[in-house]
Structure formats: C-alpha cells, structure tokens
C-alpha cells in the first residue's frame, strides 16, 4: 500500500493537533499531556491522522510535537514526506521559532511546503500579509487558515498537494 | 570562430563552413602522443584552413593526397589542406611522415568517438530511465551532469533508488554506461545513489487520486 505522508508542523500552540483532527477520517492518535503550569494540553510525541483514498493508497498526516525539547523527533518525522504544512499562530506568531522550524525542514527535505496562518477567525489575529512581512519570505505561499474548520484545512492541503503535483511535472 | 570559404573540386565550386578551433584541437590531440614534437604552428593567417574534421576524414580514408599533403623533412613538416592552408610542426630529427600521419588518423578516430559520445550524452538521461524501466528497476535519475574532458568521460549521475538495492543498481548502471558510452575507458563518472524518497515513488495518478479525494471531503 502506498502511504503518502504530509507533515504538519509549527511552533507550540499553532494548532497542529486541531488541524489534523479537522480533516482525519479516523480519531487521531494524540499524545497530548497536560502541562504543569496550566490546564493546556501539549503534544509530546506526534499526532497522526489518515485519509483513505482506496485500498492501495492513503494519505497520512503527521504532526510534530510543538515543544523544543522534542525537536529530536523532527529528524524522524521528516523522512519520506511528500510535503509539509507550517502553521503559524496568527494571534501571536513566534517568528524566530517558526523560522527555525522552516529552516530545518526546508534544508533537510526537498518536499514542497506551504505556510498556513491559523486562528484567522479570532479578533486579535494578524493579517497574513503582516505575518508574511514578519517572516520576511516572498517566494512561499502563505495562506489563511482556521484549523477548527474542515473546509479551511482542506483548502490548505489542496494548495500543498497541487504544489507537489507541479513539482512532479 | 567560424569562417566560410569556397573551394574548387573537380571544377565545381563548393562552399564550406569553417571552424578553426576544432582544427587546433585535432592537431593538438594528434601530436600530443607523438614523441619528438616540439611545437605546433597553426597560424592565424592560415585563415582558409578548414575545420577539417569532415574533410580530414575524407582525406585520411580516401587517401586523396591532392587534398591533403604532408611536406617537409628533418624536423620541420607542413600539413597542407586543400592547398589553401597549412599547419606546421617542428619535431625532433627522428620523427617522420609516417608517424605524423598515424597521429592524425588516431586523432581523427578520437574526434569521431568524441562526436558520437556527445550525441549520446544528449539523450543519456532518457536512455538510463528507459533502461531502468525495461529492467523493472525501481530507480530514478535525479540529475546528470556529464562531459568529456580530454579522453575521459567525467561528471556525476545522481540516482535515487529503493533502500537495499543501491549496489545492484550501481553495478547495472556502470555496465550500461560502458555499453552506451564506449571508448572512453578512463571514465571518471561519480555515481551517487540515494535512498528513494516517497516523493520519487509516488506516481502522478496516485497524487491526482489524493487531490480528488481531498476535494470531496
């Protein structure tokens, strides 16, 4: 069976788990744990979701852990991806961390990628043009995204998948 | 540098396309391995010297000495072409006409191989892919950069292949290259085989299926 793998990455609290949950046909495997200092949950290993295409083909979504101490997982998760989505929290983008993640995956993989600015439905979300400016990137697709909304997640995935297709031709 | 000139052959005026650089290359190759050659003179004022890759072949193989002649002796020879241009070589006393002619013939053969090789190199990526495909080898050519330097084929072939098949594929590829690009035995080609990523293995049809499925979600 061919398993096409897409990585969903981004800084802590960017919405990776939610993104995968919105689109996966199975209940995603979560590895979230409550943090000591708050009631919030954080992913400590990886999230995993699946979309079955047919009996010989499936799309797998893997989410990276957001916390820095689990960075060692990136090396494993980057293997054999066809593309990756880099999520940025529009309500408080952590630019340096995001650029560090982007640098790692773009340097260590030749897979296409898109940047999706999450939480765009929230009143304090920064416009994507501002985030693009802060990230100082011109040649990458920066998209608006609401990770809780399946349609929005779907559109992000489609942009990425079409980039992969373009790369193949 | 290219020039045109006209020549009279059996009473017919013909036009020829002339390139002087390949002639210099030919002469240099020709005499590189002849012991006792001191200096090659291919003067700029000999502007009517043809490229002669083509004409030299005719001369050497048909032995049309009226078109090509070697004159001189005792350390100083002139190669005349079409009675219009010349190339001079100064040599040691022991070098004779036979050695010089043999060197020119050898140079001509080398240039022929060089031409064949360049023609094949233009299609080598597709040839390798077709070869892999015909053998059912799961490997892809990521990048090819081959060139001929002196008498060796140099450069790099970058392949991606399934894990565990690298050495077998390398062996097959070396055999294929030697068959396709013969004569240049001192090949200096660096074959890099990397593990094939999913991006290499997934087909366009599979990707289109995924896109259609996601669109329907």
Protein model, in words:
The complex is a heterodimer of chains A (169) and B (217). Chain A contains five helices and eight strands, in the order βαββββαβαβαβα. Chain A is an alpha/beta fold. Chain A has one domain: P-loop containing nucleotide triphosphate hydrolases (Rossmann fold, 3-Layer(aba) Sandwich), CATH 3.40.50. Chain B has two domains: 113 residues, no CATH class; 82 residues, Cation efflux protein, cytoplasmic domain (Alpha-Beta Plaits, 2-Layer Sandwich). Helix content of chain B is 42%, strand content 32%. The chains are: A alpha/beta (169), B alpha+beta (217).
Secondary structure elements and pairings:
The complex is a heterodimer of chains A (169) and B (217).
Chain A: E1 2-10, H1 16-23, E2 32-34, E3 41-43, E4 47-54, E5 57-63, H2 72-77, E6 83-89, H3 95-108, E7 113-118, H4 128-135, E8 142-144, H5 150-168
Parallel strand pairs in A: 1-5, 1-6, 6-7, 7-8
Antiparallel strand pairs in A: 2-3, 4-5
Chain B: E1 2-9, E2 12-19, H1 20-32, E3 37-41, H2 53-62, E4 68-73, E5 76-81, E6 85-91, H3 97-121, H4 124-135, E7 139-149, E8 152-161, H5 166-180, E9 188-195, H6 198-201, H7 204-216
Parallel strand pairs in B: 8-9
Antiparallel strand pairs in B: 1-2, 3-6, 4-5, 5-6, 7-8
SS-based class of chain A: alpha/beta
The share of residues in extended strands of chain A comes to 25-35%
Oligomer: heterodimer
Q: How many strand segments of chain A?
A: 8
Strand order of the largest sheet of chain B: 3-6-5-4
> Overall 3D geometry of chain B?
elongated
Low-confidence stretches of chain B: 1-21, 45-53
Under the CATH scheme, which architecture of chain A would be assigned? 3-Layer(aba) Sandwich
Mean pLDDT of chain B: 70
Instruction: Profile the largest sheet of chain A.
Output: 6 strands, mixed
Name the CATH homologous superfamily of chain A: P-loop containing nucleotide triphosphate hydrolases
**Count of individual helical segments of chain A:** 5
The biggest beta sheet of chain B is recorded as: 4 strands, antiparallel
Placed side by side, the strands forming the largest sheet of chain A appear as: 4-5-1-6-7-8
What share of residues of chain A is helical? Answer: 25-40%
H/E series of chain B? EEHEHEEEHHEEHEHH
Distance between the ends of chain B:
63 Å
Class of secondary structure makeup of chain B:
alpha+beta
